[in-house]
Specification:
It comes from Papaver atlanticum. With 482 residues, the chain is α+β, with helices and mostly antiparallel strands. It has 2 domains: 2-269, Chloramphenicol Acetyltransferase (2-Layer Sandwich), CATH 3.30.559.10; 280-476, 2-Layer Sandwich (Chloramphenicol Acetyltransferase). 28% of the residues lie in helices and 21% in strands. It has a 6-stranded mixed β-sheet, covered by helices on one side. A 6-stranded mixed β-sheet has the order 9-15-14-12-10-11. It has a 3-stranded antiparallel β-sheet with strand order 2-5-4, with no helix packed on it.
Length: 482
């Protein structure tokens, strides 16, 4: 597989810009006229979006890298003209790649921040910086679209015990903007198609990532019938907490010009990347029945916390942390809509000594996590925002986590398997190497649905071997053959 990693061929690379020709009549007749009015105003009067504390706190995080694996469509359309024309980088009308480009351009019109660029500005005091997403310069707008081929089969991707290293090459490296990579096996007889996205974490969280992905699939699936409409229009305005604000402002009174002054003179002072550690990655499938039984006892997070503490050999007196990414939209009062596009996540932490975690039953671990989540209220969020404005803090993933930390991201409530581009539901969700360390866990709904869950777990080789021998964990785990 390592040899195959170096054989990935880039067939073409281009910039896809948002199609801004959405008709005025379509905007006026949309079922959610109020939200569509926001898009109309944006198209007529482009602007720069100032980042919120949520956005800025993750500005140093690596890009979100997640994608979907599909079986090659059975339609008569080829993936691209490259299938028939060797290395010619010309695409004939009606290929799947052309459909993806066409629909992506129209989708970006609904999610314009994705095609913008970060702008860092020195403030008048010359001692602080402000960051915004600039979307009003057409020459710099657009996302990088890469079409590539890899000499591996579906069996090579899905059958190994651990996620094969070549999957990491399914994602483009990044520099500034949003990247999208389409890969396939270059074999007309049988094969696969992978659509991977790399998007800055300060622009989207998991909720917004899949909001965009599902909208793109919806427009692609509908072809000519859905250039103007999507079922969930995005709310692009960033939400800011005003002093003494008691409720969420509506769109007409929202303070979209809030500017946060960061106490830095250069981005190098707060943007730090870290190299990926040597990890093995495995997806554990939990059936709907397993999840139901876990909920009766405690919950899945508690099981993972205990199991990984054992597998990683924590000392009995060592304090271990279980950190859970949580969506702040619904915890504000009144809540924000899930259609608010951006990054609105926070982290809640449960902590205890290892001996306390392992010597008692699963319910004790679940109680610790339940209390941590329950304490994350509207009041807590507003207090965090208030304190953050006084003393901004940039989350540094590489230095933040020690060997006794565990972080659980993703959510079984996301809808990756609803992303039908017109050739059926995905076979699998896969992610890149970014934002990973030993003890990272990503949750996704299971491909079979019905309440099943997939856990994508990253550990050192020794810890992974120990986890696979953990009786409590493996009793709950249900292996599904794809």
């Amino acid at each position: 597989m390592s040899r195959a990693t170096g054989l990935v061929r880039c067939l073409s690379r281009c910039t896809i810009k948002p199609y801004l020709g959405i008709s005025k009549q379509a905007q006026l007749t949309h079922q959610q006229e109020r939200k569509r009015k926001n898009l109309q105003q944006y198209i007529q009067k482009p602007q720069a979006y100032n980042l919120t504390p949520w956005d800025i706190s993750l500005i140093s995080a690596h890009y979100n890298q997640v994608g979907l694996l599909f079986a090659k469509p059975t339609s008569s359309l080829s993936i691209s003209s490259v299938d028939n024309a060797g290395d010619q980088h010309r695409y004939s009308p009606g290929t799947l790649v052309d459909q993806l480009k066409h629909s992506l351009s129209r989708t970006l019109a609904h999610f314009l921040p994705l095609s913008g660029r970060f702008v860092t500005s020195k403030n008048d005091d010359q001692t602080s910086l402000s960051i915004s997403i600039k979307c009003n310069d057409d020459s710099s707008q657009g996302v990088d679209f890469i079409h590539a081929a890899a000499p591996v089969t579906l069996y090579d991707i899905l059958s190994p015990r651990y996620i094969p290293p070549i999957v990491r090459s399914f994602f483009a490296s990044y520099d500034d903007g949003t990247m999208l990579m389409v890969k396939h096996d270059g074999n007309r007889a049988c094969g696969w198609l992978f659509i991977g996205c790399s998007i800055n974490h300060a622009v989207v969280d998991g909720m917004s990532f899949w909001h965009f992905f599902n909208a793109w699939a919806e427009i692609c699936r509908a072809k000519e019938n859905s250039d103007e409409f999507i079922s969930r229009p995005a709310i692009l305005e960033r939400w800011f907490l005003k002093e003494h604000q008691k409720e969420v402002d509506n769109d007409e009174h929202q303070d979209t010009n809030s500017i946060i002054h960061l106490p830095f003179s250069h981005p190098d002072e707060f943007i730090h990347r870290y190299p990926p550690p040597p990890l093995v990655e495995k997806i554990f499938h939990f059936s709907a029945q397993s999840m139901s039984q876990l909920k009766e006892q405690a919950n899945n997070d508690a099981l993972v916390w205990r199991s990984l503490a054992r597998a990683r050999g924590f000392h009995a007196e060592q304090v271990t942390n279980c950190e859970i990414c949580i969506n702040d939209r619904k915890r504000l009062s009144p809540p924000l809509s899930d259609d608010y596009f951006g990054c609105y996540i926070n982290i809640v932490t449960g902590k205890t000594k290892t001996w306390d975690l392992l010597s008692q039953n699963l319910g004790k671990a679940a109680l610790i996590l339940h209390e941590a989540i329950a304490d994350h209220t509207d009041e807590t969020i507003r207090s965090w925002l208030h304190d953050w404005k006084k003393e901004p803090k940039i989350f540094q993933l590489g230095s933040h986590y020690d060997n006794c930390s565990l972080i659980i991201g993703g959510s079984p409530k996301f809808n990756p398997y609803g992303c039908d581009f017109g050739w059926g539901k995905p076979l699998a969700v896969r992610s890149g190497w970014t934002n990973k360390f030993s003890g990272t866990v990503r949750m996704n709904p299971g491909q079979v649905g019905g309440g099943s869950v997939d856990l994508e777990i990253y550990l050192s080789p020794e810890a992974m071997s120990a986890l696979e021998s953990d009786e409590e964990f493996m009793d709950a785990h249900h292996e599904e053959i794809m």
